[in-house]
Design goal:
heterodimer; A: alpha+beta; Immunoglobulin-like; B: about 375 residues; alpha+beta; 2 domains; 4-stranded antiparallel sheet
Chain lengths: ~375, ~375
């Protein structure tokens, strides 16, 4: 008899059983004619501030102060380095970077034993200009060997891989190269095992603004990308690093996010002014899943794959996908929209439901 | 204080001192410092209603378990824990998740702890959990009567036919009884161990079955033979009815639990199969009384003793159920069944000797085989 009730399931014979028992069905009528809860009634009990998400949320608050970084600040806190002039007149940008082990809270109450650059995940968003000399002094305070592998043009010696700029715990290395080509790039640790070093949190944005002087007829478009110019000032620029965390180390992600904290921009939307255009630097560093994506609600955008062109590589789309390590620039505007809350999220519903869900609050 | 107690104080004190010293100095610290705590979480009950999904969880492990997030079908969902806060070792709490579950479909829950560990639980078929009402109790009682009382009463109706058939038929009937009890012993143990497997690991699963089985066997043997004589006649029939009753209690718990978790869709074919399966139990109870002339009330009492626990089991199983209790009950049942196997065997040996035959006759062997095979074959009916 072992297990007969389990096998009985597939037979769906409950009604027949009731019929055999005669009046019993009318008396008790269990299960068969009962109804599941409606959407409304299910959420009603919890209809506080989470009611608007219809229950799908990571309830609670993350302690950003304890983490030492706030996803809302990460959106815009560019690190432009220490600027000086080289004898040949070029700009030198110097950065200090460290690697350290740190427990971070990636969803309310959920701690992740991360490896970080400068104590934050993602690491600092480095922003330089095309042709700048870039010098990064990297110190490894972590418990494992680490490196910084920049996506960009550089020599083999500066590649940040085992054998070239791989730094043992307690060690130090200086990476130096010219910032090329312009675009939306990234850096990450390239020590082995690779998957673990990346998914533990060692990655960040590396943005190279174009030099308008070298861009000929596209000078105007180039100038709007250059941080600090009047043309750039009217843009609302945000860096979004799509990442994910495997909290139980089974090579599957338990939490998906942009800029680390699940639902950070759902609970507190990103405020944007309606009359100014928006530019997103979107980078995919998700491990284990080959693809990630961004879908913008109620609007369309132009997309510049890798950000290495000044004319869109995809025009008028509302969903873009990126493989691991792929990145690009999104440009759009809400100027003709009503003010309100506009969602954006991974269009892999799985990722959206596991934390990669966000909201723009468009204000007039 | 008497001298033995005084002498016991010293070792007890030493145990306490050693434990305190060990905990204070923590010599294993270097081995456990960087290691995340061991955590376990077991779902003991599931309730599906118009408010969503409710589960009672039991925690275990080296440190209190903090449930920080809950996923339903791979989506983080809001939830409320009652009582709130970290769960200590063996601590329980209800988690109420306002999730719009879908009747007839499967749902998967994952509980995420503060350390990032995931504990998963599947609801195989979502069905509204029965609420406690008189109608519901009557409905379950009817099912209990069909699977417990009716077949045993039907089986006992073979009593006049067996009685008219002479001493060989008597021994044959006793042998059938031994066969069916042997099947029930294996079945009860297997089912008990299955429940033990579902129970929280802190309950030391299999021990929950084997220890009650051994204790109930010893206790029932002692009670049965307290007057220095082996059981026979109505006394032996009562012991058999008790053992079968305990088995049916466990069976009822399983049926009730299956209702509660939506895993059961009790079809007419299954009810009939169950009835056929349990008819043999009625023959078994009647067999030892063939040499006597029991009163009608005795039959009624024996049917009730063996069959009604099925009703009680379904009630308890569907409304207030945890796997460790079922494992315990089935362990007790297994011990009781083993006791009656021993007693029926002894009775059969005595009866054979009185007739001048050996108890190891072909008749006995054929009876035991028939009893076991019949139970096995009818069990297949309820497997399908």
């Amino acid at each position: 008899m072992n297990g007969w009730w389990k096998n009985a399931v597939s037979r769906r014979l409950f009604l027949a059983g009731g019929a055999l028992l005669g009046g019993a069905t009318r008396l008790g009528a269990p299960a068969a004619n009962a109804q599941p809860p409606s959407r409304g009634s299910a959420g009603a009990a919890e209809a506080d501030d989470h009611g608007k998400h219809d229950g799908m949320i990571t309830p609670g608050e993350v302690d950003h102060a304890r983490n030492g970084f706030d996803p809302h600040q990460i959106l815009t806190d560019w690190d432009t380095g220490k600027v000086s002039r080289l004898p040949d007149g070029r700009t030198l940008r110097e950065f200090e970077m460290t690697a350290e082990d740190k427990e971070i809270e990636i969803a309310p109450g959920l701690m992740f034993p991360a490896w970080t650059y400068n104590g934050r995940v993602p690491g600092p968003s480095l922003r330089v200009s095309e042709g700048d000399r870039v010098r990064i002094r990297f110190q490894n305070f972590g418990s494992h060997p680490h490196s910084i592998h920049f996506h960009g043009i550089h020599s083999a010696r500066m590649d940040g891989v085992p054998g070239a700029g791989n730094v043992l715990p307690g060690g130090e290395f200086v990476y130096e190269f010219d910032a090329l080509p312009f675009g939306c790039h990234l850096y990450h640790c390239h020590s082995v095992p690779l998957k673990r070093h990346i998914h533990k949190g060692l990655y960040g944005a590396f943005i190279i603004d174009p030099d308008p002087g070298r861009r000929g007829e596209e000078q105007e478009a180039a100038r709007s990308r250059v941080l600090g110019t009047p043309e750039n000032a009217r843009w609302q620029e945000f860096v979004l690093v799509m990442n994910a965390f495997d909290t139980n180390f089974d090579e599957e992600n338990e939490v998906y996010a942009v800029n680390t904290v699940a639902h950070a921009y759902t609970k507190r939307p990103i405020v944007i002014a309606r009359d100014r255009p928006v530019r997103l630097y979107l980078i995919n560093v998700t491990e284990f899943d080959p693809l990630n994506s961004l879908h913008l609600h109620a609007n369309f955008f132009d997309y510049y794959d890798h950000g290495t062109t000044l004319t869109p590589t995809l025009k008028t789309i509302d969903t873009v996908m990126q493989i691991q390590g792929q990145r690009g620039i999104l440009e759009f505007s809400f100027k003709d929209h009503e003010p309100g809350r506009y969602m954006f999220h991974a269009h892999q519903s799985e990722f959206a439901e596991l934390g990669w869900m966000s909201v723009f609050e468009v204000r007039a | 204080m008497s001298r033995p107690i005084l002498l016991a104080v010293l070792p007890i004190l030493l145990i306490l001192v050693i434990a305190a010293a060990f905990l204070a100095s923590d010599p294993l610290r270097t081995y456990t410092g960087a290691v995340p705590p061991v955590e376990t979480l077991t779902v003991e009950r599931t309730v599906l209603d118009e408010h969503g999904i409710g589960v009672r969880v039991r925690a275990g492990g080296s440190e209190p378990v903090k449930i920080v997030q809950v996923q339903v079908d791979g989506a983080y969902w809001t939830f409320r824990q009652d009582p709130a806060g970290p769960l200590g070792r063996m601590g329980t709490a209800w988690l109420n998740i306002p999730y719009p579950w879908v009747a007839g479909e499967a749902h998967n829950l994952s509980f995420v702890t503060g350390t990032g560990a995931l504990f998963e639980h599947s609801i195989e078929v979502a069905t509204p959990t029965p609420d406690l009402s008189a109608n519901r109790l009557i409905f379950f009682a009817l099912i209990g009567l069909f699977v417990g009382v009716v077949p045993i009463a039907l089986g006992m109706m073979f009593y006049p036919a067996l009685r008219a058939s002479g001493p060989v038929a008597f021994e044959f009937a006793l042998a059938i009884t031994i066969g069916l009890l042997a099947f029930l012993l294996v079945d009860t143990l297997a089912e008990g161990l299955e429940f033990a497997d579902e129970a929280a690991p802190e309950f030391e699963g299999p021990a929950l079955v084997w220890i009650p089985a051994a204790l109930s066997f010893a206790a029932l043997m002692a009670i049965g033979r307290r007057k220095g004589r082996a059981l026979s006649g109505v006394g032996l029939a009562t012991a058999i009815a008790l053992g079968i009753g305990l088995h049916n209690l466990g069976e009822g718990l399983a049926i009730g639990a299956a209702f509660a978790t939506g895993a059961a869709a009790l079809g007419s074919f299954l009810v009939i199969g169950f009835t056929l399966h349990n008819i043999t139990e009625g023959i078994g109870i009647a067999a030892p009384m063939l040499a006597e002339k029991p009163r009608f009330q005795t039959f009624v009492w024996l049917v009730a003793l063996a069959g009604l626990p099925a009703v009680a089991g379904i009630w308890i199983g569907s409304f207030a159920f945890a796997a460790h209790w079922a494992a315990l009950a089935l362990g007790v049942g297994a011990g009781a069944i083993l006791q009656v196997i021993v007693e029926v065997g002894a009775y059969l040996a005595r009866a054979a000797r009185a007739d001048g035959r050996s108890w190891t006759s072909r008749t006995t062997f054929a009876g035991v085989t028939l009893g076991t095979v019949t139970m096995y074959a009818t069990a297949m009916l309820v497997q399908v």
